[in-house]
Amino acid sequence: MRLHRLRLTAFGSFPGTEEVDFDALGEAGLFLIHGPTGAGKTTVLDAVCFALYGRVPGQRDKARTLRCDHAPPDRGPAVVLDFTIRGRRLRITRSPAWMRPKLRGTGLMEEKAKTLLEEHIAGEWTARSTRSDEAGHLINDLMGMTAEQFCQVVLLPQGDFAQFLRASGDRRAELLERLFSVRFFTDLEKWLADHRTETGRRRQALRDAVVSVTDRMRGASGAELLAALDQGLDQGLDAADEGDEDAAAGTDPADDPLAWSAALLAAAAEMVTATAAERSGAAAALTAARSRLEEGRALAERRRRHAAALARRDELAGAAQERADLRSMLDQAARADRVLPLIRQAGQRAEAADKARRLAGDAVGRALPLVAGDSPTDGSLRDRERERRAEMTRLEQLLPDESRLTTVRADHDTAERRLVELTGLAAEAAARLAVLPGEREQAETRLTQARIAAARRAGLAAERDAAERDLKEIRRREARAADLADAGAAAAAALAALPTGLSAGDLSAGDLSAGDLSAGDLSAGDWAAADLAEAERSRRDELVKLEERAAEETRLREIDGLLADARREAEAAAEREAAALAGLAESPAVLHETEARLGEARSAAARVPGLRAACDRARERFESAQARDTLMADLAEAQAARRAAVDAAQQARDALQDVRRARIDGMAAELARELVPGSPCVVCGSSEHPAPAAPADFAPTAEDEQNAQDAFEAARQHREAAETRVAGLEARLGEIAGRAEELSQDEAAELLTGAESEHTAQREVAAGEPVLAAEILRLAAELAELRGQAEEAGHALTGHRARERELLAERDRLSSRLADALGDDPDVRARRDRIETEVDLITVAVDAVAAAAAARTAYEEALAAAGPQEEGTAVGALEAAREALRAADAEAAEEPELAEETRRLAAELGEVEERARTAELETAETRTHRDRLAEEERRLAALLDAHRGEDASLAARLDRLAAEVALLHEAAEATATAEIAERERENALAAARAAAAEAGFATVEEAGDAARNEADREAMDERLRRFAADEAAVEAQLADPELAAAAAAPDPDVAALEAEHERAERDHETRLSAADRAQGRYGQLAGLAGELGRAHERYLPAAERYRLAQRLAGLAAGTSADNQYRMPLSSYVLGERLGQVVAAANVRLDQMSAGRYLLEHHLGRVAGDRARSGGGMALRVLDGWTGAARDPATLSGGETFVTSLALALGLADVIADEAGGPEMSTLFVDEGFGTLDEETLDDVLDILDGLREGGRAVGIVSHVAELRTRIPAQIRVVKRRSGSILSGPSAR
Q1: What's the rounded Cα separation, in Å, for the pair 1078 and 268?
Q2: Is residue 312 within 8 Å of residue 1030, measured between CB atoms?
Q3: Main-chain dihedrals φ then ψ at residue 2, nearest 5 degrees
Q4: Who has greater pLDDT, 1272 or 672?
């Protein structure tokens, strides 16, 4: 890339428009941009970067605005850069956003950023884009580097590289990451870390699945089974100590979960067998205890019922008086119902009368102060009310007079105040009228004098102007004489300097002599000036054309190399396209076939869970069908046994009842057998037994009864056991029959065989899914890659061939144009140098001749205008004219002010006289109005005072009378209401007394007490009915023979029987629960053991994948022991990049330091740097004089500058090679030279001068004064209070 021209407007430090001609600067190869600190040298570089990338380097890009603060408000900032890149001449114009004044009104508005990109085609500038993003993309593509890389490659910021040289490893890595793309390697690190995390997550998930199953097996096992397992494992460990390793296997589920699962299943099976035997023994014990408890409870219940009946009979006998009272109360309530309505009415009337009496008392109490006497009546209250209403009517008629009185008083006060004001105004007017006539006469006299002076001023000014013109012409005459002498000598010298052989038409150096010019004879040069100007124009036109030919000449040299590159790249692209197309012809068929196989495998995989569930359901139906057939046979047998047990239990019950009835009938004979003469009877206590009862033919004993009872209990227990067994078999048969779904064993077996076969076949097909999916991905990636390669190669081939055709046409066109333009000169540079020399000489001669002719003409004109007058005489006349004019001006200047004062005094006199007359008239009118208002005020006040009484106003008196009327009216109404309520109360009470006497009650209160509500009477009736029902029930219970026999029998120990039954039941429930748990646990553990096996089978390959991913991720991240440098992959790549930079820097550092210093890079860490990411960034400086390796921080300022400059140049070379962009033909080095001694400065300048090879231009930005004497080509940045400007041959 080569810069041609840069134009800045209101940008940075420059308020105006400044232009830099880089072509002119580039001819010298090395040029200097210098100026004082803060003048804006770096702004030139900022403008180049802003034009290309729309931003400025470093922290300056964060500035609020790029516009110059010194620029006029309406001048917008803009940068125009003309440059050539990759053979294309481009011109870009960028304007940043700025605040401009509004076109209408005041204030500012934002002007948006703008961009214009143009290309020079066929001698004209053609617009390419006006969008910032499009222009940025095009320039970035052509440049081949980012803004950061451009700043490092082209602008070479020395301060940054001095910091880079001394920086830590992390800081160096940050800079290199911005310049060199390591995104691929950081993405690879991240992918490996993510892959490690993902595989670890999958492995952990599968491991958690194994642990979850083992935890579920632990939870399903319970503490008892785990204790049994631990005991067996302890025995296995003892066996292992004795040498039996097989017995010790499976001690820890984390080590070998499958062996631990097998051992746990074996322990569960043993526990199932043991708990089943214990359950059978507990069931028998429970049946016996239940029978004993039921017999005891039945006897106790019969004894309780007999005792309760006796107690209830005694209670009923004691409640006879209560029943009589209930019947009496119900009779009185019936009679009181006839009197109750009148009693309630009398109570309501009494309440109303009391309330009316209280309200009347309150109202009369409030109105009592308004009535004469101690006990006002309804009539007296109403008389007082009428009197006050009449007074209110009279007062309301006087309310307008009261309002009028207020208005009159206000008007009277206003008139008094106005009289005071008018008296003051009259006094002020009289005082002013006494002085105004004198002031007016003085002003008119002074105005007349000022007008006379103003009339004389025009003549005096004309005299002064004439004197000034005479003096000016005399002085101009003298100056033109001196100019004529100088111009004649300069023209003679310029014509003498024209070399022999230079011609402009027939002009030669001898046609115009210096003697002619010095003598003032210019006729010989009049005709030569036109020819010289024509010669200059023709040569300047040719120079403009040669500027374009220079670029074409350079382009012609580049085209040959580009043609070879284009042909070579086109051949390579054709080979790549053919190879990719051959691969594309075979891949689709293979991919389609593999996709079909994958679809089948995935369909099979989707069906496998359903088929597995179908197998489980078929197996369950088959097992249920087998169990159903077995249970149906068992149920038929159990039902027959239940029927026999029921019959036997009924027969035993009948036998027991017969024995009990016979024993009760022969109970007297049994007691008679136990009587002993002389001993008391156990029943009556008598020692005499005159007539003992004789026994019947068959009289069963207590032993017979007990035997019958035992037989009945045994038959009942046998019946209950048979019923329990039938119920259990029926429940199990119903559950199992539902699962069998009415299928026979053969049908269920056939369905099971078919389901298992289909499941096995589909599982085998689905097993190939992962392999086929991976193959699909590989084939798809390969096909996409082949397509991309073919497309890329096709585009590249088309582009290379089109490029070749363009280059051939361009070469022919340029060759023809260069042959016409060069003539006899060998190249463009030689012809341009010769013509520029001729142009400079002609320009000097033309300017000199023209200046001499102009000087002669100017002198003759000045001589004719000035005449022979001397300068001293003219100066005296001018001073006298000026003094007279100043005096007249001072006097005439007072005229406007005096005229205005005269007019003001006359107007004020008339105004004061008018105010005095007006005040006098208004005073008389106001005094008359005041007197009239005073009379009306006295009349109204007397009238109102007579009717207001002691109240403040008529309104206050009306308010008081209205309140009194309301109190009197309320008291009269309340008194009348109370009298009416009292009469109604007395009438109601008399009616209630008459009704109570008629109903048989002595008083009204007695009748009220006898009244009962409906609920009370219903409750009394219900209680009488319960008494009758209880008597009948008690008699029936006492007549029951079973209760009588139970009362005679001994009291059973029910609590002991219940405790025994509870113990047996708890033991049975415990044994039953333990057996059920053991059986369920075994089934659950068997299912979990299968699940554990499958989970462990899935876990093993995932663990291996994670181990491999962990190793690779650790190696790339620098945390693995296999990584000898302990650095991430991206840091290693950056370290290698830094090594390339150091190698390129050492080529120049060796020369600049006279062989003393070299940079050394190694992949270790920077001294003192503990950050993990800083590895590979270490730099040391090898000192060839001492042989020691030095830390860069120990270098002096000059040594640091030389080293950092070499490092910056090396980095620029590496970045240019890395980016693959165009060669940078223009470079800038910014500051840092002030720290170098003279010898080192020579070496550095030699290095920079060597960069010019191949036509490269190097610009140095510095304020060091010594550089101005060493570098001829310069641009000076001049700092002024109004902003900076550029000066120099290449700036304007």
Answers
A1: 7
A2: yes
A3: -125, 135
A4: 1272
Do 114 and 7 sit in the same domain of this protein?
yes
DSSP 424-445: HHHHHHHHHHHHHHHHHHHHHH
Alpha helices by DSSP H, listed for 666-741, are 667-673, 702-740
Domain count for the chain, please give it: 3
CA–CA gap between residue 1263 and residue 1234 (Å, rounded)? 8
Q: Is 825 a residue whose pLDDT tops 80?
A: no
1015: which 2 tokens? 């609920």
- Taking only Cα atoms into account, the Rg of the chain, rounded to an integer number of angstroms, comes to 67
Judge whether 172 lies within some domain: yes
Length, in residues, of the chain: 1292
Contact 625, 743 (CB under 8 A): yes
Report which of 1236, 1214, 1212, 1231 is spatially closest to residue 1154, judged by C-alpha positions: 1236
Q: CA 248 to CA 589: how far, in whole Å?
A: 58
Q: Give pLDDT tens digits for 129-182.
A: 888 888 888 888 887 677 776 776 666 555 566 666 776 777 777 667 666 667
The secondary structure of 999-1031 as a DSSP string is: TT-SSHHHHHHH---HHHHHHHHHHHHHHHHHH
Same domain, 16 and 97: yes
Residue 9, amino acid: T
| 3-state secondary structure (DSSP) of residue 1165 | coil
Q: Residue 60 is part of which domain span?
A: 1-144+1232-1237+1262-1292
Does residue 759 sit in the same domain as residue 647? yes
- One domain for residues 33 and 69: yes
pLDDT of amino acid 119: 92
Q: Sheet containing 30-34: which strands, arranged edge to edge?
A: 1226-1230, 1257-1261, 30-34, 1273-1278, 1285-1287
Domain assignment present for residue 1155? The answer is: yes
- Looking at the structure, do residues 613 and 760 belong to the same domain, yes or no? yes
Q: Determine the Cα–Cα distance for residues 855 and 849; give it in Å rounded to an integer.
A: 10
Residue 731, both tokens: 């429940």
Q: Are 1132 and 1176 in contact (CB under 8 A)?
A: yes
Residue tagged 């790249």 (tokens): 569
Whole-Å CA distances, 904 to 404, 451, 915: 49, 18, 16
In this prediction the pTM is: 0.36
Q: What is the 8-class DSSP label of residue 410?
A: H
| pLDDT tens, position by position, 1001-1021 | 788 777 777 777 778 778 877
- For residues 313 and 1036, give the distance between their C-alpha atoms in angstroms, rounded to a whole number: 11
Q: Are 35 and 1278 in contact (CB under 8 A)?
A: yes
The DSSP call for residue 681 is P
Q: Which residues pair with 5 in a beta bridge?
A: 21, 82
- Residues 130 and 115: beta-carbon distance below 8 Å: yes
